[in-house]
Design a protein that fits this description.
Largest sheet: 8 strands, parallel, barrel
Distance between the termini: 42 Å
Low-confidence stretches: 345-353
Strand content: 5-15%
Strand order of the largest sheet: 1-2-4-5-6-7-8-9
Shape: globular
Helix content: 40-55%
Length: 353
C-alpha cells in the first residue's frame, strides 16, 4: 500500500526562478511568494542561494543566513532551505542552525567532491540537514555513478537529488538511475527529482517517478510557480500539487499557489520568457549544454530551422559537456558563410559519443 506521507514537494521559485530575472524579485515579492507557498503547505521552500558577495534585500541571494530571517512568516507550516555551490561560497560565514532554516542543498560538479565533503561535515556540525545535488546526474557513466554513490554513502546526507540539468531524461533512464540509488543507498536517505522542461516532459516524468517509487522510501519533487526557472523552466508546482491531491489524497492548498502566481509571477512573465522552446528541446535531445541553444537563439539572424543543424555540428565537435563559446561562435560563423548542408537529427552524425 502506498505511503502517501512519503511524497513531498520542494519549491525552488526563488532560487531556480532567480536565473530568469537575476534574482531581482523585490523584497515584497519575496515575502509574498514565501507567504503563499507556506500557506499552501509546501513541504520545503528554497529561499535562494547563499553566495559570496554583498546582500541586497531585493534579491534572493544571500551572504549570511541571518539576512533571510526577515522574509520568513511568523508561523510556518513549511520548512526552508538555501542552496550552496561550494565553489561559490565561503562556508565559514555560516552560522549554526537555530531552527528557522534547517536545510541546505549543495549543488556541485563531481570535480569538487572533496570540497563538498568538507562543507557537508561543517554543515552537519552546525546542525543542518542537507541535500546533495550532483549537476547532470544523468550524464554520469555507470562507473562514475558507482563512485558517486560510494561518496554519497560516505557523506550520508538527508537527501540526494537526481538533477536533470540538460532536461534530457527519459523514462527508461530515470528508472535505471532511481533503481540504482534505491537499491544501494541507505533506506533513510530521501531521493529527490529536479526536472527541466527541455523535452516538454517534466510533468509526465514526475508522474512516472511517483509510479516507480519504492513506497517505503521518502521522495521529493522539485517544482516552481508557473515553472519559473532558467529557460526552458521547471516542473509547474500548481500542476504537480493538484495531481498528487487528486491521485494520492494529499492536501496542498492550490488556491494559495494560484494567488502567488497571479500576484507575483504573471507580472514577471510579462517581462521575461521561460517555458518550452524547440531550440532547448534539441540541446536535450543531443545531451548538450543548454547555453548552446541560448547562444544561437540570441543570434537574431539565425533561423529556428537552422539551429537544429548547428547543434548537430556542436555535438560532432564538442570535447566535453561544458559550454564552449568559441566553438559556438565558430559554428555560427561557418553557418553564415553557407558551409553546412541540410542535416537530420536522426542521422548517424548525432549519435552520442
Amino acid at each position: 500500500m502506498c505511503n502517501f506521507k512519503n511524497i513531498n514537494i520542494l519549491d525552488c521559485t526563488l532560487r531556480d526562478g532567480g536565473h530568469v530575472n537575476n534574482a531581482k524579485f523585490g523584497k515584497d515579492t519575496i515575502k509574498g511568494i514565501i507567504k503563499y507557498l507556506n500557506e499552501a503547505g509546501t513541504n520545503i521552500i528554497e529561499l535562494g542561494f547563499l553566495k559570496n558577495g554583498n546582500f541586497d534585500e531585493n534579491e534572493s541571494n544571500y551572504n549570511k543566513i541571518e539576512e533571510v530571517y526577515s522574509f520568513l512568516p511568523n508561523k510556518s507550516i513549511s520548512e526552508y532551505s538555501l542552496m550552496i555551490r561550494p565553489d561559490w561560497y565561503d562556508i565559514r560565514q555560516l552560522s549554526p542552525c537555530n531552527g528557522k532554516i534547517n536545510f541546505l542543498r549543495f549543488a556541485f560538479y563531481y570535480k569538487d567532491i572533496e570540497l563538498v565533503k568538507k562543507y557537508c561535515k561543517i554543515a552537519r556540525e552546525l546542525g543542518y540537514k542537507f541535500f546533495l545535488n550532483p549537476v547532470n546526474m544523468p550524464g554520469y557513466t555507470p562507473k562514475e555513478l558507482k563512485q558517486l554513490v560510494k561518496d554519497i554513502k560516505e557523506i550520508n546526507p538527508y537527501a540526494v537529488t537526481i538533477v536533470d540539468t540538460y532536461g534530457s531524461l527519459m523514462e527508461k533512464e530515470l528508472s535505471q538511475i532511481y533503481e540504482y540509488l534505491d537499491t544501494t543507498l541507505n533506506d533513510d536517505i530521501i531521493i529527490d527529482l529536479h526536472l527541466h522542461e527541455n523535452l516538454n516532459l517534466s510533468f509526465a516524468l514526475a508522474r512516472y517517478f511517483l509510479q516507480i517509487k519504492n513506497d517505503k522510501r521518502k521522495i521529493f519533487l522539485d517544482a516552481s510557480l508557473y515553472g519559473m526557472g532558467r529557460v526552458p523552466g521547471n516542473l509547474c508546482i500548481e500542476a504537480i500539487m493538484d495531481y498528487v491531491n487528486s491521485c494520492y489524497n494529499l492536501n496542498y492548498d492550490i488556491s494559495k499557489i494560484l494567488k502567488a502566481i497571479g500576484e507575483y509571477i504573471l507580472p514577471i512573465r510579462k517581462e521575461y520568457f521561460w517555458g518550452y522552446s524547440p531550440a532547448y528541446y534539441w540541446t536535450a535531445k543531443l545531451k548538450l549544454h543548454r547555453s548552446y541553444a541560448e547562444y544561437f537563439v540570441s543570434q537574431t539572424d539565425i533561423k529556428l530551422e537552422d539551429i537544429q543543424k548547428l547543434l548537430i555540428e556542436v555535438k560532432k565537435n564538442s570535447k566535453d559537456n561544458n559550454f564552449d563559446k568559441n566553438l559556438a561562435e565558430e559554428i555560427s560563423k561557418k553557418q553564415k558563410e553557407g558551409k553546412y548542408e541540410e542535416n537530420n537529427i536522426c542521422s548517424n552524425s548525432c549519435q552520442s559519443k
